[in-house]
Amino acid sequence: MRKLAILLVAGTLGIASQAAAQIPAPAPAKPKAATAPKAGTAAKTPTARSYDRTLLRPALLKDTAPEVYQVNFVTTRGEFTVSVTRAWAPIGADRFYNLVKRHFYDNASFFRVVPGFVVQFGISAYPPVSAAWQNANIKDEPVTGSNKRGYLTYAKTSQPNTRSTQIFINLKDNAGLDRQGFSPFGVVDAHGMKVVDMLYDQYGDSAGPDQDQIAKLGKPYIDKGWPKLDSIKSATLVGAAAEAAPAKPAATKAATPAAKKPQ
Predict the structure, then answer these.
(1) Alpha carbon distance 63, 83 (integer Å)
(2) Regarding the domain delimited by 5-36+62-247, which CATH topology (the fold level of the hierarchy) does it fall under?
(3) Which of 45, 71, 185, 218 has the fewest CB atoms nearer than 10 Å to its CB?
(4) Who's near 11: CB < 8 A, 6+ residues apart?
């Protein structure tokens, strides 16, 4: 089941139902969506492995993030930089730091872009990685800031402690999300938001790719059914934080292990 954040303020946010009002979902391998996006034709899973194998062992990724750090996103629309302040949401900042450090978000798609609301991403392009993170949730934490335009926040369901790897970028001030426990941990630079605003958003919130299938089949599934969706070429630590980051793994020809079916 798809792990989309369920917004309890559908009316305020201009969304017709609770199902459609879900915010981005965490946990790549089992994104629980309140909506039922139209599933595209299943594609074959990738045969080339180009991910850091450390990502298959989430329990090992427990580094403490710097108090402030930056992440550079290179996308199919251009580049933008995210500045993370650990004090805003330490648990979330640490998780994001570890994921970026191991290139979790590289090649991942912006699979849900709702104009005037949010941009959602964070399901791995590689099924084995999605399967490994299926139950790797982190605890909720107090909302110390606000979901203003440009701010990054983890998606979650209505259940406690369901944040995992999925992130959304607020496209406008979404103060209603603050009351629902969505804790911002970073912000996109002003110039970078011009790039975020250009991300392809014409498939519609209810006709986009199914999160279960993204997790199970990987990026080929999106490329076949929704070829215009933008994606992340790379997301890397920059500045002082980059010094501790491992090199990006080189792609190798290897069979991809079967992914555990999302639940």
Answers:
(1) 18
(2) Cyclophilin (2.40.100)
(3) 45
(4) none
How does pLDDT run across 197-255, given as a tens digit for each residue? 999 999 989 899 999 999 999 999 999 999 999 999 999 999 877 776 666 554 433 33
Alpha-carbon gap, residue 209 to 179, rounded angstroms: 28
- The bridge status of strand 184-188 relative to strand 252-253 is unpaired
**Measured between alpha carbons, how far is 152 from 57 in angstroms, rounded to an integer?**
25
| β-pairing verdict for 112-114 and 78-85 | unpaired
153 and 119 Cβ atoms separated by less than 8 Å: no
Q: How far, in Å, CA of 20 to CA of 12, rounded?
A: 13
Tokens of residue 196, six digits: 């975020």
- Element of type H or E holding 195: helix 192-196
Domain boundaries, the chain: 5-36+62-247
Whether residue 164 contacts residue 129, with contact meaning beta carbons closer than 8 Å, is answered with no
Helix, strand and coil content of the chain, in percent to the nearest 5, comes to: 25, 20, 55
Residue type, 254: A
Question: Which secondary structure element, helix H or strand E, spans residue 221, and what is its range?
Answer: helix 219-225
Rounded Cα–Cα distance for residues 24 and 31 (Å): 9
Query: What distance, in Å, lies between the first and last C-alpha atoms of the chain?
Result: 5
Q: Please write the tens of the pLDDT for every residue from 129-171.
A: 999 999 999 999 999 999 999 999 999 999 999 999 999 999 9
Picking from 168, 144, 176, 131, the residue whose alpha carbon sits closest to that of residue 11 is 176
